[in-house]
Amino acid sequence: MRHTVTSNARVFSMIMECIKTGDSNLTEMFKPFGLKMEEQGLPPIVINVFKCYYSRLIYGAQGKLPEEEILPLTDSETPHYEELEDYAAAGREAMGQAVVIKLNGGLGTSMGLEKAKSLITVKDNMTFLDLILAQMRILRETYGLTIPLLFMNSFKTHLDTMLKVEGFDNGPSGLPLAFLQHRYPKILNRDLSPATWPQNPELEWNPPGHGDIYTALVTSHLLTRLLKRGIHYAFISNSDNLGAVMDERLLGYMAAKKAPFVMEVAARTPLDRKGGHLARLRSNGRLVLRESAQCLERDSQSFQDISRHRYFNTNSLWVDLRSLEKVFVANGMMPLDLIVNPKTLDPRDPTSPGVLQIETAMGSAVSAFENARVVLVPRTRFAPVKTTADLLLVMSDCYERTTAQTVVPSPARCMPEPVLTLDSKFYKKIDDFTAHFPEGAPSLLECDSLSVSGDVLFRGGVRVTGDAKVVNASSKQAVVGPNVQVTGEVKL
Predict the structure, then answer these.
(1) Which of 64, 197, 338, 434 has the most neighbouring CB atoms within 10 Å?
(2) Cα pseudo-dihedral 384, 385, 389, 395, rounded to 10
């Protein structure tokens, strides 16, 4: 479970002052981390950023955000995507100043993968990466511009990704196709010292979360290179969100409004009530992301009230790179909420020592930009794949691949998305999942919900309708299909 730890302005200022003046206790505790990071060749900026977050951990800067300190977003400050058609011309004009950045550091470990998650086959025998490259080719053809594409890879996804994208480049700009996110040392739970694991030293490090994008753009010198080439606008999204593409309306809205930061948001549903939401701070009027760990117990009812706090972050962001540079220079870093993620040192060994992983999320930067904005986008721009159940849904006829090579909800379905529950013993890992659907996903177009319990293999042509529950209580694999309709409870 993740716990978000935030710092208000007073605590942040205090910590930065302690770092500058050399608090002796903090200096001694951090020294082995600094040396370890220096040995790995991490840039001084990264070491200082990690020191700031480590300091916040030490000082217990666990700021809560009470309901009385925030205001819900109103309709007038949350324009709908459909209302932005008039900004399309401004977007076409600004397209030559834009870059697409894909967050591609994930290994898909939740699906049992040890390679780039974007290499999963997701639709029509195409992987996430295949679709992203196809989207970019169409984008470039449409506008007659070699719009740059950048992947932010991790050390573990870089090689696989670059082999896959061989032959695709950023043309005369000379920009590379990728840059690397950094890594942070894991922290031992028992005494907050650096974790050591001689049998596999790689496990002593953790990815810093996608909030590292701001620092990585600086240390890779890509921010400077982009600005020198007159590239002012970055569209940033997850590589597993196949609905997130460069869009002239949203780009035009940002350029015309001179907005430093625009976040795409979606409407919260009952399924989202325990997740974070957008709001506005009473103190300075800036937008803020409030996560569940920042919510006081007495405010839990209002936090989960989706009629009051109606919007969540889709993690698709538009950033003015000139403003990003100013904020980074002014703070010496991008001020982000701190996420402390408790784990075991070896994720596969529950008996290994407990550690804390310091991470950040890029969306929390919304509070660092004055006059940041949000836009309510349709679900066609939000199709993330986090689990094999999500993958089954996107593979099915509930989604379709468009001529723009996006994967969007099928217009033939008028109902909300079906709720899918797959037995984790047989479907959680991608290899097991694929083996149980050898001929592809069943038709889910008329399905309200599907629950699968036990070892069940689905043949081709299966159609699921209404609320369906498939149960195999035996130790032997059962088979559904081919070419059958499944509805109600089916015991095999």
Answers:
(1) 338
(2) 90
One-letter amino acid identity for 412? A
CA distances from 259 to 30, 252, 372, 374, 431 (A): 38, 10, 6, 10, 44
Residue in the structure block whose two tokens are 């009027």: 285
Rounded Cα distance between 474 and 457, Å, is 13
**Which residues have C-beta within 8 Å of that of residue 446, sequence separation ≥ 6?**
463, 464, 465, 466
Say what the pLDDT of residue 221 is: 96
Consecutive H or E run containing 12: helix 9-21
Tens digits of residue pLDDT in 297-335: 898 889 898 989 999 899 999 999 999 999 999 998 999
Dist CA 1 CA 17 (whole Å): 31
Structure tokens at 252: 């035009």
Sign of CA dihedral 321, 323, 326, 327: negative
Q: What's residue 252's pLDDT?
A: 98
| Residue 426: CA count within 13 A, CB half-sphere | 21
Residue 24 host element (H or E): helix 24-39
Q: Which residues contact 97 (CB under 8 A, 6 or more apart)?
A: 230, 231, 232, 233, 255
HSE, side-chain direction, 13 A CA sphere, residue 330? 9
CA distance linking residue 160 with residue 156, whole number of Å: 8
Return d(Cα 15, Cα 49) in angstroms, integer.
12
